[in-house]
């Protein structure tokens, strides 16, 4: 591989933490391990990101951008509002299998960085707000009940994902998906459209 085709240090660092953080946890992985496995100098980390904290935020922003692109591609042509909402559950199921049930990178980060004013927690909230906005957008036309529906969907989604990690199975999020479908169907019957 030539120097021109070799990934830049910043990219190597992001690729490395994308493997290490889900496996071991963000706080458990030290800077020395990151730079050793990325094959970069410590100065490269500080030059590219300034700190481990900023690297973590960049890692989450990268995952957020990936998730948004995957969602945009998957939702293309999906017209039914319920199916648009349930797509998030389907994508979580597929991701869990690829990640060997290590959990949602955003929920994992939220657990490790509980202070809501921390930059990592703020990056997590940006992603979660985007997910809720997609649900609200899909449910437009269900009137003033949309915020309540979105809040309930978030609880089902988070619970399913956390349960999936603990059970090392997609069964909890599949159940959460079915409960979300029932919630949205009952809302339609009650005139919440």
TrEMBL record:
Concerning SUPFAM superfamilies, the annotation shows: Homeodomain-like, Tetracyclin repressor-like, C-terminal domain
Q: Which Gene3D superfamilies match?
A: Tetracycline Repressor, domain 2
Q: Check the record and name the Pfam families matching this protein.
A: TetR_N
Query: Tell me, what is one Gene Ontology molecular-function annotation carried by this entry?
Result: DNA binding
All residue ranges annotated as the HTH tetR-type domain in the record: 7-67
The record's section on InterPro entries has: Homeodomain-like_sf, HTH_TetR, Tet_transcr_reg_TetR-rel_C_sf
Q: What is this protein called?
A: AcrR family transcriptional regulator
Record the organism.
Streptosporangium saharense
């Amino acid at each position: 591989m030539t120097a021109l085709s070799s990934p830049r240090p910043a990219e190597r660092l992001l690729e490395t933490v994308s493997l290490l953080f889900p496996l071991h946890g963000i706080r458990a992985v030290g800077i020395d391990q990151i730079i050793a496995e990325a094959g970069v100098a410590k100065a490269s980390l500080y030059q590219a990101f300034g700190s481990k904290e900023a690297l973590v935020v960049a890692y989450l922003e990268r995952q957020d951008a990936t998730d948004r692109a995957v969602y945009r591609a998957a939702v293309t042509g999906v017209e039914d509002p319920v199916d648009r909402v349930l797509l998030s559950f389907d994508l979580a199921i597929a991701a869990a299998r690829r990640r060997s049930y290590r959990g949602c990178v955003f929920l994992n980060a939220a657990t490790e960085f509980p202070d809501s004013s921390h930059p990592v927690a703020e990056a997590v909230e940006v992603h979660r707000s985007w997910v809720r906005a997609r649900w609200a957008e899909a449910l437009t036309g269900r009137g003033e009940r949309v915020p309540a529906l979105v809040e309930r969907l978030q609880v089902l989604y988070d619970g399913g994902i956390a349960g999936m990690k603990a059970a090392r199975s997609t069964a909890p999020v599949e159940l959460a998906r079915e409960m979300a479908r029932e919630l949205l169907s009952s809302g339609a019957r009650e005139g919440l459209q």
